[in-house]
């Protein structure tokens, strides 16, 4: 794996008049890496992105690209390019003019501009669209042109601010696949802001989960999903059941279950269990008893809500298996894997 | 015929009558004016002039005073329009983009000049002009015209600037354009329809301005509306009709030329207080 640090952020702080903002942001992004900033709205992810792009100046901290500080540079001089959520394009210019604008400012020759525009339009699968005006393009096509314009600048870091959030679900999926391909092919460094965890999990090399202005966890999508560091991450990413448990010595007890107490917790704890880590048992004496509250068929699988002495849990089952279950009947469940959190956190 | 009227229903018939009435009130005077302008003899009971003639046209167009007033009016209107653009466009941009205390009140204050009786305002301005020697000067006339144009020259472009999304300006910064280039290549072209509409209204209102010019510009600056007064007073109504048509022409030509831009949207967004 390549280890050159392309973008480094240290001690970044920005507080708005409203009291919101970001604090203690430290992040190192390697060359060729796609990093997602993920979090609920208002968590500060866009603040971080706009600070890198030069549209906000931080109260303190440092932002370096290829080990050079860029904080003193205005946006037009930064080696970054940004794709905004919407209204990226200039409606009075054709696609060609939109794409060529930045290159013209760089005094690129006319023939070279023509060639580059043609190439990049091919890359974003919009060949031959040069003469169209943005209003003649669909929302998805407009965002592709915006991505193309950012790519043309050959930025050292490409910033994307929820670029696909205004598109419908199917198109969004297509676009992120394409973006991932382009990113991998060009070994581009990207910072991608999103509030859509599915989007973040599917395209990122690493995810930065943010909450109320702070970084909660930085890890690969796998690790974020399997080992959420904090209760917030556990709640925010994917579906999760939360059960009551007690930490005693090196054991964490949930009813009759015992798990290893990795973090050395004490007292009452919250135990997080993924629905896929819960299994239905057919042995009457094993596991934990519960009563089925609800069976919801969601396409090829069913979501079963089970009331247990440790709390309400949800389980996913293939539809065939769920057929024999009905509301009110007693079942027994087993738990294969848990993560525990102290209740104060 | 009867079945057709019945099939229309009461509502449609009333609507049609209202439309007819509206057209009569709206176009009737204009039609009358046009007929009058081309008549030689038109006496009471006749529906149409008995004798058609162009004699008053040749009379009006050979008056030295008339011709010089036309060129003076257009000259002043051009200067007023350019000056208003130079003064108001930066102000409009500031109102649209910069949040400063009381900005809404400042914007609202532009309405004040239209809230007072015009003559009262002009008289007090004239007093001021006397003291600084602006009476009977081109600058004085231009200034008094600008008093009237400030409002829409600021309001309409401000709305046009506001309708441009920040992301569109920011993405231009992002691709390497400095603030001035962004304004020139992105903001200004996008706001151009609004600015154009405001400029046309400025031009027309300056062409039409009579009261202020009368107070400040007499005797040397006799614009078209002022000459109009003396023609209406001194000559038969036919001459007045001819001159009215001459004065209406630029309005019609300009509005036709700009009809692509002049629409209810541009206008109404200009008069929203946001």
TrEMBL record, chain A:
Residues 7-237 form the ABC transporter domain. GO terms for molecular function: ABC-type quaternary ammonium compound transporting activity; ATP binding; ATP hydrolysis activity. Keywords: ATP-binding, Nucleotide-binding, Transport. Its EC number is 7.6.2.9. GO terms for cellular component: ATP-binding cassette (ABC) transporter complex. InterPro entries: AAA+_ATPase, ABC_SmlMolc_Importer, ABC_transporter-like_ATP-bd, ABC_transporter-like_CS, Mo/tungstate-bd_C_term_dom, P-loop_NTPase, Transp-assoc_OB_typ2. The keyword Iron does not apply. It catalyses: a quaternary ammonium(out) + ATP + H2O = a quaternary ammonium(in) + ADP + phosphate + H(+). PROSITE patterns: ABC_TRANSPORTER_1 (PS00211), ABC_TRANSPORTER_2 (PS50893). The complex is composed of two ATP-binding proteins (OpuCA), two transmembrane proteins (OpuCB and OpuCD) and a solute-binding protein (OpuCC). This is Carnitine transport ATP-binding protein OpuCA. The lineage of its organism: Bacteria, Bacillati, Bacillota, Bacilli, Bacillales.
From TrEMBL, chain B:
The keyword Transferase does not apply. It is found in: Cell inner membrane; Cell membrane. The keyword Membrane applies. The chain crosses the membrane at residues 16-38, 66-93, 105-132, 138-161, 182-204, 238-258. It is a multi-pass membrane protein. Keywords: Cell inner membrane, Cell membrane, Membrane, Transmembrane, Transmembrane helix, Transport. Residues 70-258 form the ABC transmembrane type-1 domain. Belongs to the binding-protein-dependent transport system permease family. PANTHER family: INNER MEMBRANE ABC TRANSPORTER PERMEASE PROTEIN YDCV. This is ABC transporter permease subunit. It comes from Paenibacillus monticola.
């Amino acid at each position: 794996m390549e280890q050159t640090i392309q973008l480094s952020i240290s001690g970044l702080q920005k507080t708005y008049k409203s009291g919101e903002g970001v604090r203690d942001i430290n992040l190192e992004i390697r060359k060729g890496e796609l990093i997602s900033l993920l979090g609920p709205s208002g968590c500060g992810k866009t603040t971080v992105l706009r600070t890198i792009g030069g549209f906000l100046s931080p109260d303190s901290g440092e932002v370096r690209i290829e080990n050079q500080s860029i904080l003193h540079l205005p946006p037009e001089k930064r080696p970054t390019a940004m794709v905004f959520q919407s209204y990226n394009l200039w409606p009075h210019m054709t696609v060609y003019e939109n794409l060529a604008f930045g290159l013209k400012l760089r005094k690129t020759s006319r023939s070279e501009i023509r060639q580059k525009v043609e190439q990049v339009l091919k890359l974003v699968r919009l060949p031959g669209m040069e003469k169209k005006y943005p209003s003649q393009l669909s929302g998805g096509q407009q965002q592709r042109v915006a991505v193309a314009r950012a790519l043309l600048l050959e930025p050292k870091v490409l910033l994307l601010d929820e670029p696909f959030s205004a598109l419908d679900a199917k198109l969004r999926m297509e676009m992120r696949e394409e973006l991932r391909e382009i990113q991998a092919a060009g070994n581009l460094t990207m910072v991608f802001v999103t509030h859509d965890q599915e989007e973040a999990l599917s395209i990122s090399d690493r995810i930065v989960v943010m909450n109320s202005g702070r970084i909660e966890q930085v890890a690969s999508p796998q690790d974020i999903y399997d080992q959420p560091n904090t209760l917030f991450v556990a709640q925010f990413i994917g579906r999760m059941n939360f059960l009551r448990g007690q930490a005693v010595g090196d054991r964490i007890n949930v009813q009759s279950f015992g798990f290893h107490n990795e973090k050395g917790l004490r007292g009452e704890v919250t135990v997080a269990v993924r629905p896929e880590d819960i299994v239905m048992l057919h042995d009457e004496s094993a596991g934990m008893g519960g009563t089925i509250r609800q069976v919801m068929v969601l396409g090829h699988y069913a979501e079963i809500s089970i009331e247990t002495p440790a709390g309400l849990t949800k389980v996913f089952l293939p539809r065939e298996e769920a057929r024999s279950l009905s509301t009110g009947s007693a079942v027994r469940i087993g738990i294969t894997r848990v993560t525990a959190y102290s209740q104060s956190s | 015929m009867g079945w057709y009227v019945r099939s229309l229903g009461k509502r449609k018939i009333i609507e049609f009558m209202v439309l007819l009435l509206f057209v009569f009130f709206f176009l009737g005077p204009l039609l009358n004016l046009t007929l009058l302008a081309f008549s030689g003899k038109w006496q009471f009971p006749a529906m149409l002039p008995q004798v058609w003639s162009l004699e008053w046209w040749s009379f009006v167009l050979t008056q030295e005073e008339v011709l010089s007033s036309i060129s003076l009016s257009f000259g002043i209107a051009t200067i007023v329009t350019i000056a208003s653009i130079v003064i108001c466009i930066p102000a409009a941009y500031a109102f649209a983009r910069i949040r400063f205390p009381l900005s809404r009140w400042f914007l609202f204050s532009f309405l004040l000049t239209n809230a007072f009786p015009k003559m009262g305002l002009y008289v007090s301005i004239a007093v001021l002009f006397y003291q600084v020697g602006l009476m009977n000067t081109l600058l004085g006339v231009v200034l008094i015209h600008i008093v009237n144009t400030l409002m829409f020259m600021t309001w309409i472009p401000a709305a046009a600037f506001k309708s441009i999304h920040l992301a569109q300006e920011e993405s231009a910064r992002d691709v390497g354009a400095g603030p001035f280039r962004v304004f020139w290549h992105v903001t200004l072209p996008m706001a151009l329809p609004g600015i154009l509409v405001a400029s046309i209204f400025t031009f027309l209102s300056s062409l039409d301005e009579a009261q202020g010019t009368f107070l400040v510009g007499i005797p040397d600056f006799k614009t078209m509306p002022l000459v109009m007064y003396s023609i209406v007073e001194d000559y038969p109504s036919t001459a007045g009709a001819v001159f009215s048509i001459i004065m209406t022409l630029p309005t019609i030509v300009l509005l036709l030329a700009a009809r692509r831009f002049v629409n209810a949207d541009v206008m109404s967004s200009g008069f929203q207080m946001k």
